Amino acid sequence: MSKKLQNDSGLIRLLTWFGSTKAGAWTIITLGTRIDRWLIKFTDGRFNSTFAWPCLLLTTKGAKSGVPRTVALVYITDGGDIVLIASKGGNLRHPAWYVNLKANPEVEIFINGKARNYIASDAEGEERDRLWGRALELYSGYEKYQKRAGDRKIPVVVLKPSN
């Protein structure tokens, strides 16, 4: 995130509010990820459509098709691990990328201009609570997503380097 953007808390609040609405979540999921698949790759990860939060490209193998699927996602780091929130904007169902990695936990991410292989697993218990808290510090909209998701507990996914 740029220093100018970090200092403009009004803009961050506006982006957070918009992203946490149903219309904003739909826009980000439907349009933002399509733009970001190109933008992140083209700029070696320097730019993404949210511009306020760090994004990576996650490539999973389709759970049924086996075909590679790539999606842009906001992430946090935890030591050498990457943490993803499977929110789907608070949808009642898990995002397709999460279903894919549950079937095939070996994934590739493109981050900071480099592709790397990782193994995905769900955070549980205290680790999940700690990482969920860190995710909320980055993007408070996840709290609204959890309320909209109803009984679905939004998964917190940890990616560990595979080599």
Number of helices: 6
* SS elements, strand count: 7
Q: Give the overall form.
A: globular
Q: Name the poorly predicted regions.
A: 1-7
| Fraction of residues in H or I helices | 40-55%
**Biggest sheet strand line-up:** 2-1-5-6-7-4-3
Q: Radius of gyration in whole Å, from Cα? A: 15 Å
Distance between the termini: 28 Å
Q: Name the CATH superfamily classification.
A: Electron Transport, Fmn-binding Protein, Chain A
- Beta-strand level of the residues, as a percent range? 25-35%
Describe this structure in words.
The chain has 163 residues and is α+β, with helices and mostly antiparallel strands. The chain has six helices and seven strands. It has a single domain (3-161), classed as Roll (Pnp Oxidase, Chain A), CATH 2.30.110. It has a seven-stranded antiparallel β-sheet, with helices on both faces. 32% of the residues are buried. Mean pLDDT is 84; it is low at 1-7.
